[in-house]
Protein backbone atom coordinates (compact mmCIF):
# COMPACT_ATOMS: atom_id res chain seq x y z
CA UNK A 1 0.00 0.00 0.00
CA UNK A 2 1.24 3.52 -0.84
CA UNK A 3 1.39 5.76 2.23
CA UNK A 4 -0.79 8.84 1.79
CA UNK A 5 -0.40 12.17 3.52
CA UNK A 6 -3.46 14.00 4.83
CA UNK A 7 -2.88 16.85 2.41
CA UNK A 8 -2.70 14.62 -0.67
CA UNK A 9 -5.44 14.96 -3.27
CA UNK A 10 -6.51 11.60 -4.59
CA UNK A 11 -7.85 11.47 -8.12
CA UNK A 12 -9.71 8.79 -10.01
CA UNK A 13 -9.77 8.77 -13.80
CA UNK A 14 -12.71 6.86 -15.26
CA UNK A 15 -12.90 6.07 -18.97
CA UNK A 16 -16.26 4.64 -20.04
CA UNK A 17 -17.11 3.25 -23.47
CA UNK A 18 -19.32 0.81 -25.29
CA UNK A 19 -17.40 -2.30 -24.19
CA UNK A 20 -15.92 -1.51 -20.77
CA UNK A 21 -15.26 1.06 -18.06
CA UNK A 22 -11.70 1.43 -16.78
CA UNK A 23 -10.81 3.37 -13.63
CA UNK A 24 -7.43 4.28 -12.13
CA UNK A 25 -6.78 5.80 -8.70
CA UNK A 26 -3.97 8.35 -9.02
CA UNK A 27 -2.20 10.37 -6.35
CA UNK A 28 -1.11 14.03 -6.37
CA UNK A 29 2.23 13.06 -7.95
CA UNK A 30 0.46 11.33 -10.85
CA UNK A 31 1.32 7.84 -9.66
CA UNK A 32 -1.26 5.17 -10.54
CA UNK A 33 -2.08 3.36 -7.30
CA UNK A 34 -4.67 0.89 -8.56
CA UNK A 35 -6.87 0.05 -11.54
CA UNK A 36 -10.27 -1.62 -11.98
CA UNK A 37 -12.31 -2.64 -15.01
CA UNK A 38 -16.09 -3.13 -15.19
CA UNK A 39 -18.77 -3.40 -17.87
CA UNK A 40 -20.00 -0.94 -20.54
CA UNK A 41 -20.48 2.72 -19.61
CA UNK A 42 -22.17 4.52 -22.50
CA UNK A 43 -25.32 6.29 -21.22
CA UNK A 44 -26.80 6.12 -24.72
CA UNK A 45 -27.22 2.38 -24.12
CA UNK A 46 -28.35 2.60 -20.51
CA UNK A 47 -28.07 5.08 -17.64
CA UNK A 48 -28.30 2.43 -14.90
CA UNK A 49 -25.64 0.27 -16.55
CA UNK A 50 -23.34 3.28 -16.86
CA UNK A 51 -23.70 4.24 -13.20
CA UNK A 52 -23.15 0.65 -12.11
CA UNK A 53 -20.00 0.30 -14.24
CA UNK A 54 -18.52 3.57 -12.95
CA UNK A 55 -19.06 2.60 -9.31
CA UNK A 56 -17.87 -0.98 -9.80
CA UNK A 57 -14.70 0.02 -11.65
CA UNK A 58 -13.94 2.64 -8.97
CA UNK A 59 -14.43 0.09 -6.17
CA UNK A 60 -12.14 -2.38 -7.95
CA UNK A 61 -9.50 0.32 -8.43
CA UNK A 62 -9.60 1.16 -4.72
CA UNK A 63 -9.27 -2.53 -3.83
CA UNK A 64 -6.32 -2.85 -6.22
CA UNK A 65 -4.71 0.14 -4.49
CA UNK A 66 -5.37 -1.51 -1.11
CA UNK A 67 -7.41 1.51 -0.02
CA UNK A 68 -10.61 1.19 2.05
CA UNK A 69 -13.97 1.39 0.20
CA UNK A 70 -15.00 4.60 1.99
CA UNK A 71 -12.06 6.38 0.28
CA UNK A 72 -14.50 6.76 -2.62
CA UNK A 73 -15.90 9.92 -1.01
CA UNK A 74 -12.42 11.48 -0.90
CA UNK A 75 -11.70 11.10 -4.62
CA UNK A 76 -11.73 13.90 -7.17
CA UNK A 77 -13.10 12.15 -10.25
CA UNK A 78 -12.46 12.94 -13.88
CA UNK A 79 -15.00 10.99 -15.93
CA UNK A 80 -14.80 10.66 -19.71
CA UNK A 81 -17.80 8.89 -21.22
CA UNK A 82 -18.92 7.87 -24.67
CA UNK A 83 -22.25 9.43 -25.62
CA UNK A 84 -22.08 12.59 -23.51
CA UNK A 85 -21.28 14.72 -26.56
CA UNK A 86 -25.10 14.63 -26.79
CA UNK A 87 -26.36 17.47 -24.52
CA UNK A 88 -29.24 15.42 -23.10
CA UNK A 89 -26.94 12.63 -21.97
CA UNK A 90 -24.35 15.06 -20.63
CA UNK A 91 -27.01 16.78 -18.47
CA UNK A 92 -28.32 13.42 -17.28
CA UNK A 93 -24.89 12.21 -16.17
CA UNK A 94 -23.80 15.59 -14.78
CA UNK A 95 -26.93 15.61 -12.59
CA UNK A 96 -26.05 12.25 -11.04
CA UNK A 97 -25.74 12.29 -7.23
CA UNK A 98 -22.29 10.73 -7.49
CA UNK A 99 -20.36 9.28 -4.52
CA UNK A 100 -17.14 11.23 -5.14
CA UNK A 101 -15.76 14.35 -3.45
CA UNK A 102 -16.01 16.13 -6.80
CA UNK A 103 -16.78 14.93 -10.30
CA UNK A 104 -15.79 16.59 -13.57
CA UNK A 105 -17.49 15.15 -16.65
CA UNK A 106 -16.29 15.30 -20.24
CA UNK A 107 -16.47 13.27 -23.43
CA UNK A 108 -14.33 10.20 -23.91
CA UNK A 109 -12.83 11.92 -26.95
CA UNK A 110 -11.54 14.87 -24.94
CA UNK A 111 -10.15 12.77 -22.09
CA UNK A 112 -8.49 10.38 -24.55
CA UNK A 113 -6.87 13.32 -26.31
CA UNK A 114 -5.56 14.75 -23.02
CA UNK A 115 -4.17 11.34 -22.12
CA UNK A 116 -2.49 10.78 -25.46
CA UNK A 117 -0.70 14.13 -25.23
CA UNK A 118 -0.12 14.28 -21.44
CA UNK A 119 -2.61 17.06 -20.86
CA UNK A 120 -1.46 19.18 -23.82
CA UNK A 121 -2.81 20.03 -27.28
CA UNK A 122 -3.11 17.38 -29.95
CA UNK A 123 -5.47 15.12 -31.83
CA UNK A 124 -6.59 11.50 -31.57
CA UNK A 125 -8.28 8.94 -33.71
CA UNK A 126 -10.24 6.44 -31.65
CA UNK A 127 -10.60 3.04 -33.28
CA UNK A 128 -12.22 0.55 -30.93
CA UNK A 129 -15.81 -0.54 -30.54
CA UNK A 130 -16.67 2.85 -32.10
CA UNK A 131 -14.62 5.36 -34.06
CA UNK A 132 -14.09 9.10 -34.32
CA UNK A 133 -11.49 11.81 -34.74
CA UNK A 134 -10.97 14.61 -32.22
CA UNK A 135 -8.59 17.54 -31.90
CA UNK A 136 -7.94 20.02 -29.09
CA UNK A 137 -5.81 22.95 -30.21
CA UNK A 138 -5.55 26.36 -28.51
CA UNK A 139 -8.68 25.73 -26.46
CA UNK A 140 -10.81 24.79 -29.47
CA UNK A 141 -12.17 21.34 -30.19
CA UNK A 142 -13.16 19.56 -33.37
CA UNK A 143 -15.06 16.27 -33.45
CA UNK A 144 -15.22 14.34 -36.72
CA UNK A 145 -17.46 11.30 -36.85
CA UNK A 146 -18.47 9.73 -33.56
CA UNK A 147 -22.11 9.56 -34.64
CA UNK A 148 -22.67 6.20 -33.01
CA UNK A 149 -23.45 2.68 -34.11
CA UNK A 150 -25.08 1.68 -36.43
CA UNK A 151 -25.49 5.11 -38.09
CA UNK A 152 -21.79 5.97 -38.06
CA UNK A 153 -18.56 4.73 -36.48
CA UNK A 154 -17.14 3.58 -39.80
CA UNK A 155 -13.82 1.78 -39.50
CA UNK A 156 -14.63 0.66 -35.94
CA UNK A 157 -14.87 -2.87 -34.60
CA UNK A 158 -18.68 -2.67 -34.46
CA UNK A 159 -18.83 -1.39 -38.05
CA UNK A 160 -16.55 -4.18 -39.27
CA UNK A 161 -18.68 -6.73 -37.47
CA UNK A 162 -21.85 -5.33 -39.00
CA UNK A 163 -20.36 -5.33 -42.51
CA UNK A 164 -19.20 -8.90 -41.99
CA UNK A 165 -22.66 -10.04 -40.87
CA UNK A 166 -24.26 -8.33 -43.89
CA UNK A 167 -21.89 -10.26 -46.13
CA UNK A 168 -22.48 -13.52 -44.24
CA UNK A 169 -26.26 -13.37 -44.61
CA UNK A 170 -25.94 -12.68 -48.33
CA UNK A 171 -23.46 -15.53 -48.74
CA UNK A 172 -25.79 -17.93 -46.90
CA UNK A 173 -28.57 -16.91 -49.31
CA UNK A 174 -26.30 -17.64 -52.26
CA UNK A 175 -26.07 -13.96 -53.25
CA UNK A 176 -22.38 -13.46 -52.41
CA UNK A 177 -19.25 -15.53 -52.96
CA UNK A 178 -18.08 -18.10 -50.46
CA UNK A 179 -14.92 -17.23 -48.57
CA UNK A 180 -12.81 -18.13 -45.59
CA UNK A 181 -14.50 -15.24 -43.79
CA UNK A 182 -17.88 -16.95 -44.15
CA UNK A 183 -16.57 -20.09 -42.46
CA UNK A 184 -14.81 -18.17 -39.69
CA UNK A 185 -17.90 -16.11 -38.90
CA UNK A 186 -20.11 -19.20 -38.70
CA UNK A 187 -17.56 -20.77 -36.37
CA UNK A 188 -17.38 -17.63 -34.19
CA UNK A 189 -21.18 -17.49 -33.95
CA UNK A 190 -21.60 -21.26 -33.58
CA UNK A 191 -24.24 -21.08 -36.31
CA UNK A 192 -25.05 -23.14 -39.39
CA UNK A 193 -27.58 -21.09 -41.36
CA UNK A 194 -29.09 -17.61 -41.69
CA UNK A 195 -31.78 -18.23 -39.10
CA UNK A 196 -29.24 -19.29 -36.49
CA UNK A 197 -27.04 -16.29 -37.36
CA UNK A 198 -29.96 -13.92 -36.82
CA UNK A 199 -30.80 -15.58 -33.51
CA UNK A 200 -27.24 -14.89 -32.36
CA UNK A 201 -26.99 -11.24 -33.51
CA UNK A 202 -30.55 -9.88 -33.61
CA UNK A 203 -30.92 -6.82 -31.35
CA UNK A 204 -27.37 -7.09 -30.02
CA UNK A 205 -25.23 -4.14 -28.89
CA UNK A 206 -22.26 -2.54 -30.62
CA UNK A 207 -19.84 -4.44 -28.37
CA UNK A 208 -21.33 -7.74 -29.56
CA UNK A 209 -20.77 -6.79 -33.21
CA UNK A 210 -17.26 -5.57 -32.38
CA UNK A 211 -16.28 -9.13 -31.43
CA UNK A 212 -16.82 -10.08 -35.07
CA UNK A 213 -14.02 -7.69 -36.07
CA UNK A 214 -11.40 -10.23 -34.93
CA UNK A 215 -12.17 -12.83 -37.64
CA UNK A 216 -12.49 -10.02 -40.19
CA UNK A 217 -9.00 -8.69 -39.43
CA UNK A 218 -7.48 -12.17 -39.24
CA UNK A 219 -8.99 -13.19 -42.56
CA UNK A 220 -7.85 -9.91 -44.16
CA UNK A 221 -4.31 -10.48 -42.89
CA UNK A 222 -4.36 -13.93 -44.55
CA UNK A 223 -5.49 -12.39 -47.86
CA UNK A 224 -9.20 -13.28 -47.93
CA UNK A 225 -10.61 -10.90 -50.59
CA UNK A 226 -13.95 -10.25 -48.86
CA UNK A 227 -12.29 -9.41 -45.56
CA UNK A 228 -9.62 -7.33 -47.31
CA UNK A 229 -12.33 -5.21 -48.96
CA UNK A 230 -14.03 -4.53 -45.61
CA UNK A 231 -10.80 -3.61 -43.82
CA UNK A 232 -9.54 -1.41 -46.67
CA UNK A 233 -12.84 0.47 -46.74
CA UNK A 234 -12.71 1.09 -42.99
CA UNK A 235 -9.02 2.04 -43.05
CA UNK A 236 -9.66 4.49 -45.90
CA UNK A 237 -12.21 6.28 -43.73
CA UNK A 238 -9.81 6.40 -40.77
CA UNK A 239 -7.12 7.87 -43.05
CA UNK A 240 -9.60 10.54 -44.16
CA UNK A 241 -10.26 11.37 -40.48
CA UNK A 242 -6.52 11.91 -40.00
CA UNK A 243 -6.31 14.27 -42.97
CA UNK A 244 -9.26 16.29 -41.63
CA UNK A 245 -7.71 16.56 -38.17
CA UNK A 246 -4.37 17.78 -39.56
CA UNK A 247 -6.18 20.79 -40.98
CA UNK A 248 -6.35 22.03 -37.35
CA UNK A 249 -2.54 21.86 -37.10
CA UNK A 250 -2.31 19.74 -33.91
CA UNK A 251 1.26 19.29 -32.64
CA UNK A 252 0.71 15.53 -32.31
CA UNK A 253 -1.75 12.92 -33.62
CA UNK A 254 -2.17 9.50 -32.03
CA UNK A 255 -4.43 6.54 -32.76
CA UNK A 256 -5.86 4.66 -29.80
CA UNK A 257 -8.41 1.93 -29.11
CA UNK A 258 -8.45 -1.84 -29.23
CA UNK A 259 -8.51 -1.97 -33.03
CA UNK A 260 -5.73 0.60 -33.55
CA UNK A 261 -2.69 -1.75 -33.69
CA UNK A 262 -4.37 -4.14 -36.15
CA UNK A 263 -5.72 -1.33 -38.34
CA UNK A 264 -2.52 0.70 -38.53
CA UNK A 265 -0.86 -1.34 -41.34
CA UNK A 266 -3.92 -0.72 -43.54
CA UNK A 267 -3.84 3.07 -43.27
CA UNK A 268 -2.49 5.38 -45.99
CA UNK A 269 1.34 5.49 -45.77
CA UNK A 270 1.44 9.27 -45.23
CA UNK A 271 -0.86 8.85 -42.21
CA UNK A 272 1.26 6.10 -40.64
CA UNK A 273 4.42 8.20 -41.04
CA UNK A 274 2.98 11.08 -38.99
CA UNK A 275 1.32 9.13 -36.19
CA UNK A 276 2.87 9.45 -32.73
CA UNK A 277 2.49 7.01 -29.84
CA UNK A 278 0.03 8.03 -27.11
CA UNK A 279 1.83 9.15 -23.94
CA UNK A 280 -0.81 8.07 -21.39
CA UNK A 281 -4.04 6.02 -21.49
CA UNK A 282 -7.53 7.62 -21.55
CA UNK A 283 -8.22 7.10 -17.84
CA UNK A 284 -5.10 9.13 -17.04
CA UNK A 285 -6.41 11.74 -19.46
CA UNK A 286 -9.56 11.84 -17.31
CA UNK A 287 -7.31 12.64 -14.33
CA UNK A 288 -5.64 15.45 -16.30
CA UNK A 289 -9.10 16.85 -17.02
CA UNK A 290 -9.98 16.74 -13.31
CA UNK A 291 -6.71 18.46 -12.38
CA UNK A 292 -7.25 21.19 -14.98
CA UNK A 293 -10.88 21.69 -13.92
CA UNK A 294 -9.92 21.90 -10.24
CA UNK A 295 -7.17 24.43 -11.01
CA UNK A 296 -9.56 26.51 -13.12
CA UNK A 297 -12.11 26.55 -10.28
CA UNK A 298 -9.43 27.69 -7.82
CA UNK A 299 -8.36 30.47 -10.18
CA UNK A 300 -11.98 31.63 -10.58
CA UNK A 301 -12.44 31.72 -6.80
CA UNK A 302 -9.20 33.65 -6.40
CA UNK A 303 -10.22 36.13 -9.10
CA UNK A 304 -13.66 36.62 -7.55
CA UNK A 305 -12.10 37.13 -4.10
CA UNK A 306 -9.65 39.70 -5.44
CA UNK A 307 -12.44 41.52 -7.24
CA UNK A 308 -14.58 41.61 -4.09
CA UNK A 309 -11.61 42.90 -2.08
CA UNK A 310 -10.95 45.65 -4.58
CA UNK A 311 -14.58 46.69 -4.55
CA UNK A 312 -14.56 46.91 -0.73
CA UNK A 313 -11.33 48.91 -0.76
CA UNK A 314 -12.26 51.43 -3.42
CA UNK A 315 -16.05 51.18 -3.34
Automatic annotation (TrEMBL):
CDD domains with a match to the protein in the record: ASKHA_NBD_GspK-like
Highest taxon in the source lineage: Bacteria
Pfam families given in the database record: BcrAD_BadFG (PF01869)
Gene3D superfamilies recorded: 3.30.420.40
Residue stretches making up the ATPase BadF/BadG/BcrA/BcrD type domain: 12-262
Recorded coiled-coil stretches: none
NCBIfam families reported in the protein's UniProt record: NagK_SO3507
Stored PANTHER family: N-ACETYL-D-GLUCOSAMINE KINASE (PTHR43190)
Protein name, as recorded: ATPase
Amino acid sequence: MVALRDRDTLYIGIDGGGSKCRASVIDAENRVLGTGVAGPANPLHGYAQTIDSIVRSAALALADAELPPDTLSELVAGVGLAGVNMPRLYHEMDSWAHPFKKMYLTTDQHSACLGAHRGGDGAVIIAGTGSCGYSWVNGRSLLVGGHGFPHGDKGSGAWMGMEAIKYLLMALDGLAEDSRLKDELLKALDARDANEVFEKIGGKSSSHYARMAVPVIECAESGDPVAVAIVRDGAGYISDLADKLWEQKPPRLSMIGGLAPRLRPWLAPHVVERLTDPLDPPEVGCMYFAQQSLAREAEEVKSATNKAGSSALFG
